[in-house]
Model the fold of this input.
Amino acid sequence: MPDLDAIKTEVRRLLADGVVEVVVAFKPGDTPLHPQPAFFHSPEEVDSLVHNGLCQNNLATFLTHLPKTKKVGMVVRGCENRSVNALIVEKQKSRENLYLLGVPCEGIIDWRKIVEHVGEAVLAVHENSDEVTVETREGQFNLSRNELLHASCLRCAHRNPISADILIGEPLPEGDPNLARVAVEEFESLTNEERYAWFQKEAERCIRCYACREACPMCYCTECFVDHIEPRWTESGATPAGMQGWHIVRAFHQTGRCTDCGACERACPMDIKMTYLTEKLNNDMRKKYAFEVGLDIQTQPPFATVTLDDKNRFSV
Amino acid sequence: MQDNGHSPYTPIPMHVLHAYYESTDHSLKTVELSFDHAADSQAFFEAFNPGQFCLLSVAGKGESALGVASAAWEGNFVRFTAQKMGSVTTALHGLKAGDAIGMRGPLGNGFPLQDWKGKNLVIIGGGCAFSTLYALTKHIHHESHRDDYGKLTLVYGTRTSGLCMYKHDIAAWHENEDMEIHQAIDVPEDDWLHHVGYVPDVVRQVAPSPVNAVAVVCGPPIMTKFTLPALVELGFAPENIFTSLEKRMKCGIGKCGRCNLGPKYICKDGPVFSLAELNALPADL
Amino acid sequence: MNLILEKHALPDLLQSWRGNYDVYLPQKMERFSHFMPLTDNSVLVTHEPHNTRISPKALFLPMTEALVKFTRFGGYEDAQQVIQPRIIFAIRPCDAQAVQLLDTSFIQEAYTDPLWLERREKTITVGLGCHEPCQTGFCTTVGYGPFNKADLDVLLTDMGDAYLVETLSKAGEDCFQGLPCASDEFVEQALIVQRNAHDQMPVAFETENLKEKLEQNFNSDYWETVSQSCLGCGVCTFLCPTCFCFDIVDETQRRERVRNWDTCMFRTYSLEASGHNPRPSKVERTRQRLSHKFVYWLDQVNQIGCTGCGRCVRYCPVGLDIRAMLRQAQTLPFEVSHAG
Ligand SMILES: Cc1cc2nc3c(=O)[nH]c(=O)nc-3n(C[C@H](O)[C@H](O)[C@H](O)COP(=O)(O)OP(=O)(O)OC[C@H]3O[C@@H](n4cnc5c(N)ncnc54)[C@H](O)[C@@H]3O)c2cc1C
Ligand code: SF4
Ligand code: SF4
Ligand code: SF4
Ligand code: SF4
Ligand code: SF4
Ligand code: FES
Done:
């Protein structure tokens, strides 16, 4: 488990020494289930900083909320570090204006699973690598950490931040990269009809609140394709065509950009699965182009590069 | 609002009588629309008051709020002037005589003409927002209403002379004894005989008397922002200064929530507000 | 009238309504409950977190619906909706209260929304009080409560093996015809259950002078502080039973003008054609959302526009908690206004 005091000490130092103007991390929410992303501007504020398994957002999302030239510090886990790298590749931030405090990650806990087990009256949550202990008004419950983890985290192959300025805590053994394929293969093994039925069932629950988009670090377009009026790319409403159009195009726009952090699924108020689509595309990127996003800050995603010897030239 | 037994979201059918450019740069186009059904026309004119607006509807593009630029006495038609902005207004610019179009309205409150009776009127307009003030002036200027009001002063500014709307009437009004008219452009042009300068400055220069007078201001936000304090300086009480507000609109009838300014909906409770009312509302424009 | 409904008799009663009504009740959908039409094998789901994820406002104001149809020759006609008489079973008091609030917007002298009105007139609401109030909800704080009767035709109190059925309208009475009357003792016990539920709910924030504080601090840094981590998504408002904003969009291929749920939290919501946006950032948008509920609704109908259902608290993806935001607002400076 991360050493919270060590994180705070480093964050305080960054702010006190003026290395950065703001540090993006988490602070406690009103209930232990919902820590909140927070912006720390002075060492005094840092007392309230938290970092635990219930911190469900990908903080890299906030990078594009802040001015490009602002010196930003960020507490990053494996996926967040890679999302930050991907944003640097896409010129949304320059590395000089960033200071990354890396924290190896043992996976994000799905708070909804806790509520399913013990109800909402949660007073405190304690965790270690194997177990999550939840105190409620009715008593104390010990739950297995693995069972509570979010699907993306169970298949994560990059638990350690790969390009942090400082790593807090010992690196963890990396996850098995083959696990990422399992989810994709499960989906691929279905017949066309079954796949479509799966897709329909997930997509058509959508209420088009766009929490998935807003929670995703890579969805930073000032005008999303769904908001475009002329031409309109997809039906506007919560109709089957509209919802399917949204889901499929959103996924495609992530090709070679998604780190499978799962923040989109965790944000979704309708419990919609969507990483099976982005993971399929990620898998294709790995297979066809040997590309994985966010491993460095130079390599453009395959679909953002055009070379003279491209096999398929775009013809207009 | 027409009560034709239909949903208030359903436009009534209209046809374009005339469509012509209002400005030399073709950014402004005027359309005059006639009613397909006599009942709609009757319902419209029973409810209509200068200062109100309608939603013009182009199927497949959407609806746009436009102020009514005609007075009831002019005849059985409704006039609008649209500045080309986005999808709907671009479609409106493509209209020609004989084309079908939908309309909802009249919407909003309009100017409180009853309260203004017996008073001197200072009408201050800028840009294309002058359209409803044009309707107001035409209404008041008509022989059957003129005696209800006192002195009429008109200040109208545009960026260039080419952007001046309703030129024919304006030229006639310059000749009119019964009305004091001050026209202005932002930068000097050859052959320009009137004021040069921004509307707030022209207002200060003209210095209309606040005694027994109301002032009404419609223009681009920046003009309105600086003209309102100028009027206050001249001694107009906030209760006697009026302006027409704009915000993005959809339903036009206070249902969709979009155009709220604090607890008021501009479409339903406005668009005309007195400065006194505005001062009590949050600055959320 | 006070009646007793044995729980084992409920499925048959629900089925008996099907002949004359479309019956909607909370049923399991994925990991949550959702109002869905009653079928032969529907199972009522009322456990923790005991309210439906999407509020039943969706049964009155669907996420998407056609308003106008385009006719062949450039004309328009009203979109037709076939709305059957219906019963909404086990609607929670906070959500019924929200429907009453929304009536004040959709049904007005000058303009009435015909689709809303028709659905309202054709709906009977059978409320289920919350004998074990949810943890996140705060209905009592905002002046409503777990056994609030506003807008209900019937209120049920869960008494273990049976419900106390309080009929509150003729239509409600008709639906429960033939049930035995509840004894005074049973009613007495139910009232205790109701009172206990009410008393068990903590005060989430003080509402006294809250309106004045929010109003007078319109330009305060407070809004910046409380909105910092907001993502500008539609979760808090789409799930909110009292949020009613909608967009109107032309769907050319369907030859329809439709309305879709919309929200003041979206960046495109108030963006004007000129590029001007009166609410350019999450600061102004958050201010609008909170002010609408805790200032403007009060100005308009003298009621708080939040019924305390707790959905926004539970599902905000960044854990922004309206209760905490309002507690913080209570620390803002203000002056007592002597007007009126
Ligand atoms: C009460 C009122 C009176 C108006 N009177 C006039 C007038 O007389 N002449 C004139 O040229 N313009 C007027 N406008 C502004 C005009 O409504 C907008 O310029 C127009 O709606 C832009 O629509 P669009 O489809 O061309 O632009 P797009 O950018 O394509 O807009 C898409 C949609 O957004 C909405 N919208 C965008 N901007 C505005 C806005 N500023 N106001 C209202 N809705 C908006 C409309 O619903 C529009 O259909 C008025 C606005 C209001 C509120
Ligand atoms: S699409 Fe989802 S999983 Fe992929 S980067 Fe975005 S939020 Fe993370
Ligand atoms: S967060 Fe969920 S409900 Fe909202 S738009 Fe995304 S998929 Fe749809
Ligand atoms: S749900 Fe949370 S993040 Fe989304 S708009 Fe509401 S407050 Fe902001
Ligand atoms: S503001 Fe939140 S708690 Fe209040 S009614 Fe809406 S969703 Fe429920
Ligand atoms: S809070 Fe926002 S979305 Fe909800 S009704 Fe008010 S303006 Fe609309
Ligand atoms: S435009 Fe819908 S409320 Fe004003």
Notes: The mean pLDDT of chain C is 94. Chain C touches chain A through 45 residues (CB under 8 Å).
